[in-house]
Each structure stands twice: as C-alpha cells, then as structure tokens.
Request: fold
Amino acid sequence: DAGVTQSPTHLIKTRGQQVTLRCSPKSGHDTVSWYQQALGQGPQFIFQYYEEEERQRGNFPDRFSGHQFPNYSSELNVNALLLGDSALYLCASSYGGLAEISGTQYFGPGTRLLVL
Amino acid sequence: AQSVAQPEDQVNVAEGNPLTVKCTYSVSGNPYLFWYVQYPNRGLQFLLKYITGDNLVKGSYGFEAEFNKSQTSFHLKKPSALVSDSALYFCAVRDPNSGNTPLVFGKGTRLSVIA
Reply:
C-alpha cells in the first residue's frame, strides 16, 4: 500500500519564478492538505482540497494556489517566488474532507524548495 | 483561536531511561490532539492521537501520551528510550468546537537519546 508521495524531492528556483509541486494521496484517501515548514518551525497550514475544490485556506497570499484532480492527486503552485518561500512543503492526505475532523492526516516526505 | 506550545526546544535523555516530551494546548472546548515525529529529511510520521475516552493513549513504537484536561497538557512518553528515537517531535491540535479548523502544530521538540 503506497503512502503519500510527493515530487520533486528538491527544487531550486530564483526570485520571481513560478513553481509547481505535486502530491499523490495515500490509497483510499480523498482529501489533500498542504503545509509549509520553514526551518526550525512547525508546519503551517496552506490550504485543503476535497472534491476538487479548495475547502479551507490558511494565512497565505494568493500567490499560493492549488488544484485537485479527479484521481485525488493535487498540485501546489507558487507564483512570483520570494526568498521567504524557501521551505519544506508537505502534503498530507486524509479521508472525508473537513467533516472528518478527528481523522488522521498522513504526510508525504516533502519537497524542499530553495529560492535564490 | 487554538494553539499548542512545546516549551522545550531540546530534550536529552540517556538510552534506556524514560523520556517525556511536553505539550500544552489552548482551545475553547475539548481538543483533538496529535503527536507526529519527523526524522531528518523526512516527512511527518503519525504516532498517536487523542479524540475522546481513555486519557492514556498508546501509539506506535512504544510511545504513549496522557491527556490532562485540568493542566491542558498532552505529554508524550516512553518508558525506555532508544537511540533510534532521536528525532523532531511535533504536537498538534484541532478544536472541534470552532468549526472546520485545520491542524495547528507546535514548533517542535528535538529529542536526543544518548547511548
């Protein structure tokens, strides 16, 4: 049973560029949440996708956008990259959207983004 | 707003000794609480969660945590530490009484188990 997978593992971009990160949820899961983990910090919630719609969003600017596909996989897009966007981006999958508030989120290995 | 605090940035313990990683929370009602572990260059791995019921929750790899409502704490414990337990530990909370809120994480505690 495959767990949560993310690609790429590492990425280097320059300021002003755009980046797309990808996530495939754990088998049987239909909900994908994205988090940003800056160095030395805990993960910060970016947004959650369920039924191909953004259901909830954290305190992140519109430069951060996403998409969920019919097979439940998801993309995170970041436009106009800033130095401060350098972080580990984590994808987490779960089942049932926001209704399953007690459900466990399972995390992928992350994509480490470096913005120069 | 919900929040969680991990008061220790670093915890050092000798192999074979018991370990405790502390977590306190702030929510308006009864919380849902989670512990995750992160190894270097890896994502977060789920250890255990408290939703309701018995205050002592048992999880993966011999870890357990005790929910204490009066002290608003959810400390992670293990009776006998292993060197392989050395990692970064995160406590997280959700407030089921505040609508559909996301998981909120603490800043993490680095556990170092010394042989």
